Amino acid sequence: MKTPSLLSIFILTTFLTNFTVCKTSCVMATGVLKCPTDPHAVKKVHIDLWDEDSLPLESDDLMGRTWSDANGNFQVTGCASDFGPINTPDPYIYIEHDCPHRYTNATDPIQ
After folding, report:
1. What pLDDT is attached to residue 65?
2. Which InterPro entries match (predicted)?
3. Are 32 and 38 in contact (CB under 8 A)?
4. Helix (H, G, I), strand (E, B) or coil at 71
């Protein structure tokens, strides 16, 4: 049985590494939540930082999670990696709040 040469193993490893390149990005988002209809609704609001994955059969990745303080201040950080040399993470924030809308009284999440 013939054993593979060191050179062929090196070439194969280099070839496979080029196809498994991922782009990693880290982000930090800070802000202050305001609720004009109920100023107390900004306390302990659930805030998620997500990476949007638009490729087929991919789901969005959770990058970070936090809750606002009593004054509505928040800071959320996180990192994400996307497969491929040109596919970079696309972060967005999801805010799950209880601030009623001024006209409809709805409390739809903000994205």
Report:
1. 98
2. Transthyretin-like, Transthyretin-like_sf
3. no
4. coil
Q: Which tokens is 98 given?
A: 């209880």
Q: Nearest 5°: CA angle at 54, between 64 and 32?
A: 35
Domain architecture of the chain: domains with CATH: 23-111 (2.60.40.3330)
pLDDT category of residue 31 using cuts at 50, 70 and 90: very high
The residue ranges of DSSP E strands in 56-99, in sequence order, are 61-67, 73-83, 91-96
Other C-beta atoms within 10 Å of 31: how many? 14
**Paired tokens of 10:** 């090196």
Within the chain, strands assigned E span 22-32, 46-51, 61-67, 73-83, 91-96
pTM value is 0.71
**In this structure, what token pair is assigned to residue 68?**
């606002």
- Rounded CA gap, 27 and 20, in Å? 23
